[in-house]
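JOB MANIFEST
job_type = single_chain_structure
chain_count = 1
residues = 115
[input]
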Amino acid sequence: MPIRRGEIYFVNLNPVKGREQAGQRPVLVLSIDEINQLPLVVTVVVGTKGENVSRDYPTNVRVLPEESGMSMETVFLCFQIRSLDPKRFPETAAGWVTDEVLGKIETAVSYCLGL
């Protein structure tokens, strides 16, 4: 099944170094579908459980279960951008976000990168 922009997958981010997010995490696909279909890498924003983030910052986007199709609130850490090999991804997505939520994530990523 093809990996698509706006989908959420649980992937294992190990190995990591320093302050990188580690372990099995939700990631939101940020790269465009034309890139995702090539034998390259998939660019993602890393997420964490909403309960782990007590305050909202302009670098984060909080996504409710009804906005993602997942069972938990997730905060996407838009300063934690990674490019991953497609082999890390499971066959099926765990969820997805609407265009509105994806727009919020794009805004936060742009803020983090100074674009």
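[summary]
The chain has a mean pLDDT of 92.
The beta strands are 7-12, 24-29, 42-49, 60-63, 74-84, 95-96.
exit_status = 0
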